[in-house]
Amino acid sequence: MKRLFIPVFFLMPFVYCFAQEINDKEVDSLYKEDQFYAGVTYNLLGNMPKDVAQSGFSLGFHLGFIKDMPINKNRNLAIGVGLGYSSNSFNQNLLVDKDDMGRTIYSVLKDNNTFIKNKFSSHLIELPIEFRWRTSTATEYNFWRIYTGFKLGYIFAHTTKYRGDLGRIRYTNIEDFNNFQYGLTLSAGYNTWNIFLYYALNPIFSSDANLDGNQIDMNAIKIGLMFYIL
Question: What is the mean pLDDT of the chain?
Fold first, then answer.
């Protein structure tokens, strides 16, 4: 124990001097904010066809990096451009299947008691672009923020799954999915807790997808929480 105490005793002045040096450093006047993000959303479907309804809880997970570029002297206004990943699921009663010719067909499951699971999910690489306002300073880490912008996404993988009276149906090669998704975003809050909204400006499926002769114009709406890290 004595052998341990002696070196620690002699190191204490150096540790103190090092800590003091850190405290005496000049505040960084070129600070940046919120360059990493992670979030969770509840996913909704807009413009649903007649008799189509959501069921269960549809989740989305989001994470990525945004390059923060302040545009004024106070650095409370900035432009953010980034790269991220998003995983989303939508539980609903629109069955995606294929006929004997390999063509994709859509039908509505009107009796919820006939199936246990019916959903489609997607994985996207995303490019967020934001205009950022905040009340932060170089020494204030708890602040208000409003970030609004546009997000472009590319679906690199998707899956449709059904489990019920018809058996198990699963596809990963549905060509009717719009590979490119884009929409408006809004993040607003204080400190850790920030409400996040996303509204897609284009439908999930292409114009080739139709139900009873009508085009399926469903789009994605996401509501949740976003967390930012320096």
Answer: 88
